[in-house]
Amino acid sequence: MKKFSCYIIGKDNLLIECGKILLAHGHSILGIFSSSIAVSVWSHEKNIPLIHDLSTFTSIVSTEKADYLFSIINEQILNDKIIASPLHFAINYHDSLLPRYAGVHATSWAILNGEKKHGITWHVMGTGIDKGDILIQNTIDIDSEDTA
Description:
alpha/beta; seven-stranded mixed sheet; 148 residues; single chain
């Protein structure tokens, strides 16, 4: 597999776990945009620049290009400049099987609606929230005792 460079935007442990996988495969993370304390600690340990301001992040990704941008557990609506910044794709992680349950709290809605299956989607980001070509989806069963 060819090594690539990327930026990551988002929060929480899933961003960290994805970052660990990227680094373990020899890819380079040029910077992270996050307000998460856990992500801040991890990025400092890994000597990865952490950006807290969206306008600064926009400027950085526009001038220092990366192959990809990964949006993982990200609550920010990204501007067109950020989405267009990677040399290849901006890719979003979404906690449902798109196009069903686009938007927020997808897992909770699936459980409240009595779904038997749920999953995750990685998709190319483009115009519109949770739109874009689907790259991969994984399905899981929902058991009656499962919670969000």
